[in-house]
Amino acid sequence: MAKDWNDLHIEQGLDVVRAQLDAAALCAAPIQLTDLPHTPSLEDAAEIGAATPEGGGGNPWTTDRIFTRFALVEGKTAIFDTFKRVIIKKSAFEMLVTKPLAKEWLELPVKKVIADDMAERLANKAKAEAKFKLVSGDGMAPIDRYVYIDGTKDSWDIQKRRRVPEGALKMSLGDAYGMWLNSPDRRTVDMEHIVFDPRMTKDPEVYINTFEGLPLVPVNDPSKCRTFKSIIRFLCNGDEAATDWLTKWLAYPLQHVGAKMDTAVLFHSTMEGSGKSLLFSDIMGQIYGDCGATVGQAQLESNWTVWQSNKLYGVFEEVVSRDQRYNQVGKIKHMVTGKTVRMESKFVNGWEEANHMNAVFLSNEIMPWPIGENDRRMLVMWPKDTLPEPEQKKVKHELANGGVEALYDYLLGYPLGDFDERTKPPDTEARQRLVELSMASWQTFLREWRHGLLGAPFTICVSSDLYALFLEWCHRNKEHTLSHTKFSGFVSTQVDKVPRVPWMEGARRSFGTFFFPWTGIDKAPSPAPSLSAAALGTAVAKWREQAKAGGWSVDSWDHVKFSDRGSAAA
């Protein structure tokens, strides 16, 4: 009789060694299947497992137990163990249950039979589950944790709530990656069905919603957030209209989670320590948790925009440098009013996501970036004072003692009236100053002309006169000049312009381009372009006289001097 595996190998061959090893491997506790007929109960399985010898003594097998546990693989001599979900060779089966019992079972006219492909599928599934268990430990099994995103090379990690690129998933699963990839139970979701839906309107059976709610529970205790509420008024310099609008702007997205405001907030001031970051970043940031972000210049200018993913609220601190302030205006406007955002991340396919982020911009610059005269998207405030030290101590106390939860409750209950996503902010002194600083030279000139600040009337005039006045104005105010063509084209976007209009310049008939502005701020229409040449000549002469009376050197304008010489020669 062989004493060890080497002796057995020499005396009876490698096949007998393999058969005995397979038989020994089958002696562990059985695994119950639920998708095959006639499966024994847990009690039966335990009984059989307990009766299986580990040291080789005794034979627990009976015909009934063999009938219950094993199935013949159709078209083969291999046997399928329905407990272990493994395919074993006939020789290993005989070693396990003894040859007489194996022969008796094989000769039964009625016994379990399983299709070859089904046996392979169940065996592979069992192997995958074993590997998955080694990978996952006590966590989620990979087949449950990772969902393939159809149309990409990425997967969705249900446990971590994030996209995982193919390479990272391979590193995480190791050998089990192939099992996961080829598993018939692997879940798939369309790339368009992974959504950030704070309103929770999508069907959860079809979509994966990346929104998991806000982190805080509101607490109804107004005494805990008195200082927080006073900071809102303090930053608005006591302006009642601005304070009310800002409070509603902060409250609306919390009362209507997922609301995308068409407006934004800009607080800028050279007065540091006013509490801008304290309110908008530290306090409001706690309310939004992971759905909020504080962003710097590097993130705004980066090509990787994944920081915007799953965000409801963003605080942008000094995001535009002085030399880039004009280049970033388009990006800022899109963040305020854009409906979707393109997400780009390293090693992950880009995707479109709904834009639910409401933006607050903070700066210590006098002109963070230019704002148009008719741009009413932003509440612009200029805090005038530093937050007093006693107030700072109160803020610290409220931060540590439930003040944020109390402010959350206050905002949830704040009356909104008819305020909604599109309600325009009040026009503040700070906004007007920023608009003026943002204007190009021709815009400032036109603004002063329209409001009667130049001395020249805002009435019908020939383009050459207005351009000459513009050049003299630029010289006096050290502003940048433009060519006549560009100046005339820019002004025509605001004031009606008619080219090649006949008019009488003294005794000489001329053709010129005329501006026909509104006669005054109340927008009453000016005389129509069909005035006679003589009447237009009279209007030009009157305009020049009033401009001269306003202190402008009309007689020194080149085209006027040339015209006077021509009239004298005639």
Task: Write structural notes for this entry.
The chain is of the alpha/beta class and 570 residues long. It has four domains: 5-114, no CATH class; 124-195, no CATH class; 222-434, P-loop containing nucleotide triphosphate hydrolases (Rossmann fold), CATH 3.40.50.300; 439-569. It is 42% helix and 16% strand. It contains 23 helices and 20 strands. Strands 12-13-16-11-17 form a five-stranded parallel beta sheet. It has a four-stranded mixed beta sheet with strand order 3-2-1-4. Strands 7-6-5-8 form a four-stranded mixed beta sheet. The relative contact order is 0.07.
List strands and helices in order, with pairings:
Elements: H1 5-12, H2 14-25, H3 42-51, H4 63-69, E1 70-73, E2 79-81, E3 86-88, H5 90-97, H6 99-106, E4 113-114, H7 116-136, H8 142-145, E5 146-150, E6 154-157, E7 162-165, H9 166-173, H10 176-182, E8 188-190, E9 194-195, E10 208-209, H11 226-235, H12 240-255, E11 264-268, H13 276-288, E12 292-295, H14 297-301, E13 313-317, H15 329-337, E14 340-345, E15 348-354, E16 358-363, E17 378-381, H16 389-400, H17 403-412, H18 429-438, H19 441-450, E18 461-462, H20 463-477, H21 484-491, E19 496-505, E20 508-516, H22 533-549, H23 558-569
Parallel strand pairs: 1-4, 5-8, 9-10, 11-16, 11-17, 12-13, 13-16
Antiparallel strand pairs: 1-2, 2-3, 5-6, 6-7, 14-15, 18-20, 19-20
Helix pairs in contact: 1-2, 2-5, 5-6
Domain NrS-1 polymerase-like helicase: 268-377
Protein name: NrS-1 polymerase-like helicase domain-containing protein
Pfam family, one: DUF5906
